[in-house]
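Why do we care about 3D structure at all? Because function follows from shape, and shape follows, mostly, from sequence. That is the central idea of this module. The next example makes it concrete: a single protein chain, its amino acid sequence, and then its structure expressed as tokens.
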Amino acid sequence: MKTESIFAVRNLTLDDMIRSDEFYSWDNERVNALGLNSEDWEHLDRIEEYAEIASDGETHAEKIESWRDFLSDLTLPEKIRERIVGEIDNVEKWHAENGSLNEFIG
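And the structure:
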């Protein structure tokens, strides 16, 4: 379920960000652009293969990196940006500690 515009959320969280229309559109454009770079063809092929079974096809590390990339494109108050970076860091740390950082998202 997507939320209202990301810019309408006063106390923006990571969850708000990744469920926003803006992230959804940005992420689709990012995935579509993978085919433009020969270094990313394997990544794109994997995403397309997993999509056939209604799965993501990216690792947790790849998805977390996409969150960081999207956040870097946003103009946000520093306090909000720092809070979201902290949330991303915590998610990444959890996956690293539990050995799932490089596992595919189901």
